[in-house]
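Schema walkthrough. Field components (list of strings):
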Amino acid sequence: MAKQSKPLIALRKEPVQARSQDTVDTILEASAQILQKEGEAALTTNRIAAHAGFSIGTLYQYFPNREAILSAMATREQAHILKKLEAVFATLDPTDPEPTVREAVAALLGAFRGRHGVRRAIILGVMRRMPDDPRASAGVAEPLLTALESRCAGHFVPLGEAGRFVLLRAIAGAVRAAAIERSPLLGKPAFEDALVRLVMGMLLGGR
Amino acid sequence: MAKQSKPLIALRKEPVQARSQDTVDTILEASAQILQKEGEAALTTNRIAAHAGFSIGTLYQYFPNREAILSAMATREQAHILKKLEAVFATLDPTDPEPTVREAVAALLGAFRGRHGVRRAIILGVMRRMPDDPRASAGVAEPLLTALESRCAGHFVPLGEAGRFVLLRAIAGAVRAAAIERSPLLGKPAFEDALVRLVMGMLLGGR
DNA sequence: CTCAATATCTGAGGATTGCTCGGCTTTCTC
DNA sequence: GAGAAAGCCGAGCAATCCTCAGATATTGAG
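Field assembly_structure (string):
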């Protein structure tokens, strides 16, 4: 009795066979295409399923709700960015950190080029999940910042918890705002310069 | 013929009689209460109308859609904050700007205390409108920043357009993130310190 | 005060959309 | 190749946004 009151929900998880992994990928790609070509309003679950070539029921086998689709797209994007940042920080020269900071900023901005329609929806999706999902916040990059601080000890005034929080969210806020507002600054070198100035100014203690 | 194809839309504007002004206020207050007590999911247009004691049709006389209600709440909040900031900047001492910056930060943070459930929804509503409504972005505070720069000429390295954009969105990003994530930092002095450090560091040129 | 013009309010219901569930098909395992 | 497990299907329910045709309230000129 009560055979599948749980399983039905739990089934909405990771696919196991290769076929279903493809299904999930197809659904996410279809979502991205709809977002890019027709905008957020057109991103209905039925439309996604149709565009992906699956039944609506299949979609809901993997995603518990519409929001989860955006969430999954965001998670992939975020992992991609984090990986690039980690690669950059691996080359850090503790004597002269500014080039690394600049490189990291450039990498971050690089990830925000193209597919503006998709990115906008992803950002808003991320923010909607923020209080619930700790991974949704800019805090994921905190280990990188901590590493930067400890390896460059002596060069900077320590940030403390609040300082790290503010710096990470400040960067995210500036970049996300540029993306959402579709600011032409996004592509310009002056924008990169300003972000570097923001980071270095904060690290140096505002004095 | 074609008597009211336009008027019907145009009617969704400002109320003229005192009675309808009250209606709009009541609707906004009801929305705030629902948000605070029952969360965003409960904020349906029919529920708002019922809670405000009006028919759903009345609500749609003034607000073209659900989104517009959040937008109106955001506009009021924003005007309130901007007014407070203007008052702070009126007392600026060009010789020693840091106290004014600190005061402005404190004022901004003060506006983010209490009614967390409401604020979260407002912030997300603002961001959703960002590309369309220029007033929705942090750019509304740009005149204040420009004034600060010109009155303190010589103390700071000029920011330029990109610098101003980044600084304003960075502050907004940090504060909004704290609010949305319900971070306990929001109330702590260390958070204020970190924001001041962010601003001063950026103004001083990151060098 | 009267009454017509104007402003405001009403609420049933059309159109859409998110999502469920019982059952069918494909793939895996032994 | 047979049974089990994984994957897929899609009609339709419930919830929601929003419209529209007309009722009610207010105003102000005469």
